[in-house]
Design goal:
The protein is an all-alpha fold and 212 residues long. It has one domain. Helix content is 64%, strand content 0%. The chain contains 7 helices and no strands.
Length: 212
């Protein structure tokens, strides 16, 4: 019985680690299906940054990686075990940095008069929950990554620096998409698309015309 339980625990651990290893591609695939299926442009614009813009520099740097940097089972592409900057950290922390910026921006957004105070409170609560969830994910995924792959001082330093730069890149990409339409093209929470524009509250006369 004891050997059976140990085998189940070991299999579960391997299952979880396999899921963590492929996490960036799983997130990207899910967002791609949802974005295309629901015509959600914010998801599609985000994926351009996560899959194309963010990994570009690490890909160029990793071309010079040698066997001295081999890390079995720690990258997102099977067989790609030699790298200097881990793509896993780049993609995951780009996503988390983007979501953190998204939640903070929505939390700080001033209400439009005459907005319902209860709805404003609900929006701030949802954003605060998102901020806490992102912080927890940053810590949990960081610990899992560092304890399972980056075991030396140099690798840990590179991993932490990569996470910080990737989070900053997520902030920059959100800021780039947030330059128009009141954040509707950048918001992954879907909150900005539910907010009414100031013109919707203007009480103007309405005229009816006959239709041919």
């Amino acid at each position: 019985m004891e050997s059976t339980l140990l085998a189940i625990v070991d299999d579960f651990k391997n299952f979880v680690m396999s899921g963590v290893q492929t996490l960036p591609l799983s997130m990207a695939g899910t967002l791609l299906i949802l974005g295309v299926g629901t015509a959600n442009y914010s998801m599609l614009f985000f994926l351009v940054g996560m899959l194309l813009a963010a990994p570009l520099l690490p890909c160029l740097i990793n071309l010079g990686a040698t066997k001295d940097w081999e890390m079995p089972g720690c990258d997102i592409i099977p067989g790609n075990t030699s790298y200097i900057i881990p793509q896993w950290i780049v993609m995951v922390y780009f996503f988390l940095g983007y979501m953190m910026t998204n939640a903070v921006e929505l939390y700080q957004m001033p209400p439009t008069e005459p907005a319902d105070p209860q709805k404003t409170t609900l929006r701030k609560t949802q954003c605060m929950v998102g901020i806490i969830a992102v912080i927890v994910c940053m810590f949990v995924f960081g610990v899992i990554r560092l304890t399972s792959c980056d075991t030396t001082g140099t690798r840990i330093g590179i991993a932490i620096g990569t996470a910080a730069l990737a989070s900053a890149a997520g902030y920059g990409w959100y800021s780039l998409l947030n330059t128009s339409m009141s954040g509707r093209l950048a918001d992954l929470f879907g909150i900005a698309n539910r907010l009414l524009s100031p013109s919707a509250f203007v009480n103007e006369p309405v005229g009816c015309v006959p239709m041919a």
